[in-house]
Specification:
The structure is a single chain. By secondary structure, the chain is of the alpha/beta class. About 30% of the residues lie in helices and about 25% in strands. It is built from eleven helices and 18 strands. The strands form three sheets. Strands 1, 2, 8, 9, 10, 11, 17 and 18 form an eight-stranded mixed beta sheet that branches. Strands 5-6-4-13-14-15-12-16 form an eight-stranded mixed beta sheet, with helices on both faces. It has a two-stranded antiparallel sheet with strand order 3-7. Helix 2 packs parallel to helix 7 and helix 2 packs across helix 10.
Length: about 425
């Protein structure tokens, strides 16, 4: 498949854009694969790509029950950042951000990554102290960070509510300038195209319906497009992890599935040139402006467990109130649409990339609110795990056994409650 270039755009423009090849193949399933990745979202596609690119693996299939980008990949607010501080998380998300910075060149596809800065608002002196600790750790471990005082914040983002009677008074902000956002569809298409160029079979409309086990391994997967024999199997299915885990006869996982809604407004002229977030007084909100002008924003989970990909009205009210308390100028803007993704929330708010009790089954799950920004590193480390059958040192504690060992990777310090890890 030809590489995209300025010359190819020019040449195809002269011929009416009728000569473009399709971005990736639509192959028929083969009987046997060395590796089958279940889940054609960002993490599954990234895993297949890095397996082929970094580890020279062949005969790889990505199995997706619907179409690429039809699950959580297309149901998020596209925020990228690495402002984590705990060992394991810190190195992981910084690696992910570095991969983001070169991803368009690596994939030969414009993922529309915009490093417009990630700004976390602070509302009292205690919160400023907390973020000073976190952001100093970031600087000490090779990342970028800034603390803005109120005067700097007013200059950078003038449309916030700075009034004396503001619902959430402002003291300053913690900023990561290398953070920003990307286009979720473009990331999925970029990884799919790049993986396909390396020989990966992407099997859409291919739902897994069962597994055949022999002793302590999976020997084949039953799908709606036939039986696939597999040397190794990786699960990367976001909110449906528990379903697949149970289908494989593995019992229960330490995760809960919740809905997370996101919203987009009608398009406006340029207003917000950053990704802005805050969490205070029971309110959580994050907002940025898309390339089409819409305000893209979200907040807390819907508090009940569900597999539905649609939201409910109380959370619409809650998030709308939060965003207008932050930007009062948006109070008369019309909501264009909203949607929900299914999030697998772990007990400590951190993910799992690990081996399982089955010798050839590997797990990628528990992403909570962090799945989109983690996509490149998730695929990189999951591919490394599958290829080498051992965890990289960065993810060695992100396993299912960490709770028994007393290793809690609780970035927010919210305790063992999946609903509280924002």
């Amino acid at each position: 498949m030809a590489r995209y270039s300025a010359w190819s755009v020019f040449k195809n423009g002269l011929t009416g854009n009728r000569q473009w090849a399709r971005a990736w193949r639509d192959p028929e399933p083969q009987q046997h694969y060395d590796v089958v990745i279940v889940g054609g979202g960002l993490h599954g596609l990234a895993t297949a790509y890095y397996l082929a690119k970094n580890h020279r693996q062949s005969r790889i299939a990505v199995v997706e029950k619907g179409w690429l980008g039809g699950g959580n990949a297309g149901r998020n607010t596209t925020i990228v950042r690495s402002n984590y501080m705990l060992p394991g998380n810190r190195e992981f998300y910084e690696h992910s951000l570095k991969l983001w910075e070169n991803l368009s060149h690596d994939l030969n596809y414009n993922v529309m990554f915009s490093q417009r800065s990630h700004v976390t608002l602070m509302h009292d002196p205690g919160e400023m102290d907390v973020y000073a600790r976190r952001y100093n750790i970031m600087r000490l471990t090779g990342s970028d960070s800034e603390l803005w005082d109120l005067a700097t914040l007013k200059k950078e983002i003038p449309h916030l509510d700075y009034s004396a009677d503001a619902r959430f008074p402002l003291y300053g902000a913690a900023v990561q300038r290398r953070g920003g956002s990307a286009r979720h569809d473009a990331v999925a298409w970029g990884y799919a195209r790049a993986a396909d160029r390396l020989g990966v079979d992407i099997l859409q409309n291919c739902e897994v319906t069962g597994f055949t086990r022999q002793d302590s391994r999976i020997v084949s997967l039953q799908t709606t497009r036939g039986t696939l024999e597999a040397g190794k199997v990786g699960f990367a299915v976001a909110g449906n992890t528990s379903r697949l885990w149970s289908m494989a006869g593995m019992g229960r996982l330490p995760i809960e599935s919740h809905k997370l809604q996101a919203f987009v407004s009608e398009p406006l002229k340029p207003l917000i040139n950053h990704v802005v977030s805050f969490a205070v007084g029971g309110a959580l909100c994050y907002v940025s402006q898309s390339d089409k002008g819409g305000m893209v924003f979200g907040g807390d989970l819907d508090w009940y467990k569900s597999y539905a990909q649609r939201g409910n009205l109380p959370q619409v009210y809650d998030v709308a109130e939060a965003v207008t308390s932050m930007f009062p100028c948006l109070s008369r803007v019309k909501l264009l649409r909203h949607w929900a993704g299914v999030m697998d929330m772990s007990m400590d708010g951190s993910h799992f990339i690990c081996k399982t009790p089955l010798s050839n089954l590997y797990l990628n799950a528990g992403w909570n609110y962090g799945g989109f920004k983690a996509s490149p590193a998730s695929g990189w480390y999951f591919a490394d795990l599958i290829a080498n059958d051992r965890p990289h040192s960065v993810i060695e504690n992100h396993d299912l056994d960490r709770f028994r060992r007393g290793i809690i990777i609780d970035e927010r310090g919210a305790g063992p409650d999946p609903k509280l890890h924002g």
